[in-house]
Design goal:
Blueprint lengths: L15 H14 L15 H16 L6 H4 L2
Helix pairs in contact: 1-2
């Protein structure tokens, strides 16, 4: 089953760190931590940072997420 997740509106800067936190909290809200297969992004540097930060957040909770395989 496919599901498009759109995180809530960001408050503050649209930095990769803030976006990663928003995505991680949204995944938690929907019970989807550890179930993400891919992330579709553009080539903006803040999206690269977001994916790296998302990987760090996953690692902190022993969730397997490989940013190099997940980015589309």
């Amino acid at each position: 089953e496919e599901l498009f997740i759109d995180p809530y509106e960001l408050v503050g800067k649209h930095s990769g760190e803030n976006m990663a936190q928003a995505v991680f909290e949204t995944l938690d809200l929907f019970g989807l931590k550890g179930q993400v297969l891919a992330i579709i992004i553009n080539n903006a540097s803040n999206y690269d940072t977001m994916c790296k930060e998302l990987q760090k957040l996953c690692e902190q909770e022993d969730i397997s997420f490989n940013v190099q395989r997940a980015q589309l």
